[in-house]
Structure formats: C-alpha cells, structure tokens
Amino acid sequence: MQDLARIRAFVQVFDAGGFSAAARQHGRSKALLSKYVTDLEDYLGVRLMNRTTRKLSLTEAGEAYYREASALLQQLDDLDATITDQTAEPRGLLRVSAPRNFGEGTLAPVIFEFLAKYPKVTLDLRLEDRYVDLVDEGIDVALRISTMADSSLIARKIADMHVVVGASPSLLKAHGTPTHPDQLRNLPCIVDVNLQGQSNWRFVEDGKTISVPVNGPVRVNSPLAARQAAEMGLGFVVLPSYLADPAVASGALVPVLTPFLPTGQTLQAVYPHRRHLAGKVRALIDHLVEWFATHPIS
Question: What domain range is 181 assigned to?
C-alpha cells in the first residue's frame, strides 16, 4: 500500500501542476506529498520530476512512468467502482476533452448542469482544437464530431450533427453560386486545418463519397476564425451546424451545395477501451444523451 500511495502522490502532483495545488485538492500536506515523490524516485533510482520555484515538469523517465502509472491507477479506480455499490453517487476527478468552440458554447451548460447534479465530481475540462490521445494524456472521455471510429477506443453516439458549406453574399455575387462540388476547385476557400481531410472536402454524389481539393487565401486552426473569414467574403467555408446556423440566420452566410453534403456526422463520446467503465464516466455519458435528446443540435 505504501508503494501505491507513492505512485498516486506522484500522479496527483503532476496532474495538479505542483505540490501545493495537489495538497489542496486531495487534503494532504505538501510535505507528505513531497516525501512520497522523493521516496518513489529513490526507490526507482531515477529523477521523475524537475522542480523549480515556478515550474514543475517531468523528465523523460518521468513522462514514461506517468503514462503507465496514471493508466494503472485509473484501472484500479475503475475496478473499485465495479465492486462498490453501483447506485453510489459518482465522485472523483473527471477529465474531459472537447473542441474549443463547441465546448465554450453548446457543451458548457450541459456539463455544468452535470456538476450541479453530482457535486462530488470535480472536472478537468480541456477545450482544444487538436486530436487528443486519450490514453497518453489520461483523458476519461472525449467529445468528438466524427464519422470515424478508432478500434482502440469505444464510442457512444450522443447526438446527430450536420455540416454546412457557406459563403458571404458578396462572394456569391462576385463568383456565382456553385452547383456542383467540383466547382470549388477554382474558387477561393477557407481551409480549417482541424477539419478531417483539411483541404480535401468530402461530398456525396449518387451515394458515393467524392473528395474535392480546395485552396484559398486563408488556412487557420479555428472554425470560428474560419467563419469570420468567410463572413468577410474571403472564401467558401465548411462549418459544423452549431457555428454556421447563427451566421446563416443573420444573413452573413448563405448555404450552398446542400444536396451534396454528407450525412452520418455525429457527436460521439469516446473513451479508452477498458474492461471496467468508471461510474462517473457512465453517468456523464448518460447525462449527455438525455440532454441532447431534448436539446437537439441544429
């Protein structure tokens, strides 16, 4: 048990970003956590953390040990959850990843309602527009907008979604309204590098997927910035409906090529393939499914 306590202290300190923060979060003394981490390093014969007064970072050995140790602790926590009463109130730290714009707008009220419902759960919500490796980064569940499945992960559908291709009225006046996706090859387009396929936009014709290479004056890693560029007439854009619909309603963007847009886009809750699913994760996913059943994403 002593060894497990040392390992857990090491993971808690790094997750919290320092000894003081970990002590506050977990109700332990800073001195005890420091002793546990030092004892662990002495036992392993290697430094795991670089410590300064302002910053804490992992050594190369520490990064490797953290990945395995955090996964091991999560498996132990998941196992405990299956043994204890399944009706017990969800509790503990829950790490969630989601796209930034979706998280800041559509997801925020849903997930904060979940916290109000389960006050013993604490949340580490990471909003970023990049592909997150759930296992390496210790994420419990990621919200992804996708049609693809990763065989090493488990995905549960949360809600249906769709995409919009649009352009400003001024751009359509200057270049005309395309009637077929292939026409986009010769038209200015805004490329969101977070989009699956990036500058190869996918459409459907006669039941078959077609890929159209596009180019234009702007490449950006933010769908919100891509929308703003399109509203200013810089090019056509592909956007998720929750970002496109307000601009369409205001007249800033006009939808085009709607008959060729792919279907099957969904909001998915994705989590690592584990034998035991933690109760806090199951409770969050159930909450999301129930919420979006009555609050569909436009």
Answer: 163-260
Read off the tokens for 112.
Answer: 């904060």
**Residue 62: is it exposed, middle or buried by C-beta count within 10 angstroms (0-12/13-18/19+)?**
buried
Read off the pLDDT of residues 136-148 as tens digits, 9 standing for 90 and up. 788 899 998 766 5
Residues 161-196, buried b or exposed e (16+ Cβ, 10 A)?
A: bbbbbbbbeebbeebeebeebebbeebbbbbbebbe
What are the CA-CA distances from residue 79 to residues 68, 93, 277 (Å)?
16, 16, 8
Q: Is the pTM of this model over 0.90?
A: no
Angle CA(200)–CA(132)–CA(245) in degrees, nearest 5? Answer: 55
Picking from 211, 213, 156, the residue whose alpha carbon sits closest to that of residue 187 is 213
- Report pLDDT digits (tens) over 157-196: 898 888 899 999 999 999 999 999 999 999 999 999 877 7
Cβ atoms within 10 Å, residue 293: 10
Domain identity same for 255 and 271: no
What CATH number should be reported for the domain holding residue 187?
A: 3.40.190.10
- Could you tell me if 168 and 245 lie in one domain? yes
- Cα–Cα distance for residue pair 118/129, rounded to 1 Å: 27
What is the number of other CB atoms lying within 10 angstroms of the CB of residue 59?
15
Please name every residue paired with 203 in a beta bridge, in sequence order, or none if there are none: 210
Residues 152 and 274 in one domain: yes
